[in-house]
Amino acid sequence: VYFKNLSKQKQKEVMEKNGNNHKLRVCVATCNRADYSKLAPIMFGIKAEPHFFELDVVVLGSHLIDDYGNTYRMIEQDDFDIHTRLHTIVRGEDEAAMVESVGLALVKLPDVLNRLKPDIMIVHGDRFDALALATSAALMNIRILHIEGGEVSGTIDDSIRHAITKLAHYHVCCTRSAEQHLIAMCEDHDRILLAGCPSYDKLLSAKNKDYMSIIRMWLGEDVKTRDYIVALQHPVTTDIKHSIKMFELTLDALISFNKRTLVLFPNVDAGDKEMVRVMRKKGIEHHPNFRAVKHVPFDQFIQLVAHAGCMIGNSSCGVREVGAFGTPVINLGTRQTGRETGENVLHVRDADTQDKILHALQLQFGKQYPCSKIYGDGNAVPRILKFLKSIDLKEPLQKKFCFPPVKDNISQDIDHILETQSALAVDLGGTNLRVAIVSMKGEIVKKYTQLNPKTYEDRLELILKMCVEAASEAVNVNCRILGVGISTGGRVNPREGIVLHSTKLIQEWSSVDLRTPVSDALHLPVWVDNDGNCAALAERKFGHGKGIENFVTLITGTGIGGGIIHQHELIHGSSFCAAELGHIVVSLDGPECLCGSQGCIEAYASGIALQREAKKLHDEDLLLVEGMSMKKEEVVSAAHLIQAAKLGNTKADSILRTAGTALGLGVVNILHTMNPSLVILSGVLASHYVNAVKDVINRHALSSVKTVDVVVSNLADPALLGAASLVLDYTTRRIY
């Protein structure tokens, strides 16, 4: 009693605040039979409290169309005075008719709202008519209460529903998920009421003992409970052609299933007339097993679905209200995708033949599921009325959005201006793992180097550790990190940031998602690409390739790689395998390559290939010449071969000339394929090969490409600079 009196006192205070016991003038606008089933319980509640509320009813949309049953009559039968009837539907069968209907409603509604001057308008759902209502009210500074916002279905209705949400000042939602969606959409939590669906107030109290007379009236005298089907299917306005096809398949399946079926006409939507034509073409209105009707009063419809063997179609009623009775439902297509459903709903997302729908009917028909109360507990209306009474009309009309906190804009702060825009560059080599802070001008501000671990787990852990350390240090050196660029050996999908598979030099490095863990750890955008591609990007931004439209970069190091810039853009290829230049075959019977083939450039000219040949000479005591010495434990390398050649070792010199020729032949193939204006040799072996490559071009290339420039890169660290350019190029020009 105490709390009841307290509640009355609070309501009295609200009324006094609203001015001398001013009644709240509520306009309820209903557009069709479906929204009236949700609005009617609220209208009855408002009408039952005349000392608090004054109700005005506006009827528009398909309520006033004979083809859809003139459903305004059921509003009159419920003893509601209809203040205004607005004919707003433009006849037509396409999307344009829907747009014109919205426009017609927008033309007619201002006059009505000017006359009524409601304190608040109640709008339901996600229909195009409701969008016109909400738009008119919002522009005329009338408060809007939106019913069933925050839900997800999967068609254009989603967009309309969320648009109405942004126009509405108050929200009544049906489920906890819908409430969370509204909050995520930046709506004020204090203006959101989780009430449940108003129609459930009637559903859960429906105890009509004479339901058999209703079933017989609509389906025939010989029909038994749980032995008939209710079908209700609407066109999907975003894919009308497909939804018509699915409706045809549904009718074919229902004819084959051979059970008594009540088919309701579809909503007023683009494509509805075509669906009616399909019904008539298949003779549904005259088929002995079918009853086709334009409208069934909601009270009777409740009894029909409550005792049906199954409901089929794509109406929201199937996934929402019918769950209250545990009636089996077959939900067809995408119109209700995203809706919360009970276990009574079986989804048929797509059907190319009637067999899939027929099989669903065989699975569902006649079952009985537990009753579901996802959408309400039968007490929505009292909550909504209490919510309406709490509205303070003296509060500012302008709605506020509750945006999540964001950092202040410091773009005019002198410290921000003086910061150096930089990238975090990662180079994943066969031996070392390197991380560097690289400035916009290509200056390596700070660099970290560690041995590259052998296992995937250790390698990823070290990458994250080094990146976090470098990002922290960036603050101390006054650098603002824009993102992370990663250069790695192997084939990379740069769109997803995944290393598809790597070279044998980097073990356990296949199908590795590098972007996600690094981005999660640093909260920065991450780009990943192949080391050869990164070298080409480095040249384009900082090196010889700056301003050049078409050029090729060849890396000559432990392996042979490269990148191709065509019309100023990097080429990745259809399977991210472009510019694997080291695996151009220059001899059919050449030495075996790490890729498994024979005669690749890499098998001749890479550091590994030169080391292999140096070991052979050393094992035969043919490597060392006068002026050379090696410690006993020293490992033979390509450097020893180059030194021997310089000191007059003819065999070493012959190996280097063969390697240079192989590389040159590969370059000739590239020239004949891509016709670049520049070839850049990069890496530790570049200076040893440049003359040999030029010589091979002069001897073997077509005269039209012999004028190509072949230069040695002047970049000290192309892999790191290329990784940095992934970030610096894209973050500054906003191209991803």
TrEMBL record:
Q: Which Gene3D superfamilies does this entry report, sorted A to Z?
A: 3.30.420.40, Glycogen Phosphorylase B
| Domain UDP-N-acetylglucosamine 2-epimerase, chain residue ranges per copy | 52-389
Write down any Gene Ontology CC term: cytosol
Q: Where does an N-acyl-D-mannosamine bind?
A: 491, 503, 531, 580, 583, 602
Any one Gene Ontology MF annotation carried by this entry is: metal ion binding
Q: Which residues form the signal peptide?
A: none
**E.C. numbers:** 2.7.1.60, 3.2.1.183
Q: In terms of domain of life, where is this protein from?
A: Eukaryota
- Could you tell me which pathway this protein works in? Amino-sugar metabolism; N-acetylneuraminate biosynthesis
Q: Which CDD domains does the annotation name?
A: ASKHA_NBD_ROK_GNE, GTB_UDP-GlcNAc_2-Epimerase
Which GO terms are recorded in the biological process aspect for this UniProt protein?
UDP-N-acetylglucosamine metabolic process
User: Main location per UniProt?
Assistant: cytoplasm
| InterPro entries associated with the record | ATPase_NBD (IPR043129), ROK (IPR000600), UDP-GlcNAc_Epase (IPR020004), UDP_GlcNAc_Epimerase_2_dom (IPR003331)
Q: Which residues bind Zn(2+)?
A: 583, 593, 595, 600
Looking up PANTHER family in the UniProt record yields: BIFUNCTIONAL UDP-N-ACETYLGLUCOSAMINE 2-EPIMERASE_N-ACETYLMANNOSAMINE KINASE (PTHR18964:SF149), ROK (REPRESSOR, ORF, KINASE) FAMILY (PTHR18964)
Describe the family membership recorded for this protein in Swiss-Prot or TrEMBL: In the C-terminal section; belongs to the ROK (NagC/XylR) family.
Record protein name field:
Bifunctional UDP-N-acetylglucosamine 2-epimerase/N-acetylmannosamine kinase
Q: Which gene encodes it?
A: Gne
